[in-house]
Prior knowledge:
Elements: H1 6-11, H2 15-23, H3 28-60, H4 78-92, E1 95-99, E2 105-109, H5 110-139, H6 154-173, H7 175-186, H8 188-198, H9 210-215
Antiparallel strand pairs: 1-2
Amino acid sequence: MTTLPFEKIQGADRVATDTMNVIFSGRGAIVMAVAIMISTFGCNNGLILAGARAYYAMARDGLFFKSSGRLNNKHVPAWGLVIQGIWAAVLVLPRTIKHDAAGNITYGNLYGNLLDYVISAALIFYILTIAGIFRLRQTRPNAERPYKAFGYPIVPILYIVGATVILIILFAYQTATTWPGLIIVVTGIPVYFIWKKLGTPMAEEGSISQAAAEAKGEY
């Protein structure tokens, strides 16, 4: 508010970049690009590693391709990473073409559309994840907790309230993207039951300790 006039903020598509342009005299786009790249690589690091482990757990329960439920000699679900990478490429690489009234053509990609679709659906799962803290405190009060939620219960409650308000606003005012995104997620429900009926859970797999892995030179 101090850097940009209110009218500029109202009409801006990228407020943060415009703010950086004022502060760094026209170099804001470069500053923001570097910051976004750092943030993106950090986010991808967690998403890629955690995603493959989710597929691994699904496969062990008979809900995904069995190849994703096996670890390689480095104790990594390699096939889960491969499948995840291929699917990500399928979603990101296709180009979109738009024609405006003047006959001009602009090219884009599906990633921007998918991001709009999925952000509201992701908020639902974030809220459920935080709500799970309260549920687990009730059902498993004596479970070992190496990490405890900061500021419990105030901070988790504030997050749930804030995210719920944002979610309601998105569903009320961004109907063109929020409802299609929810439909995409809901399509996973019949897929889950079909795979559950046809899939076969894999046998329990013994885990290797850190000490044993170090002794074998695999840690």
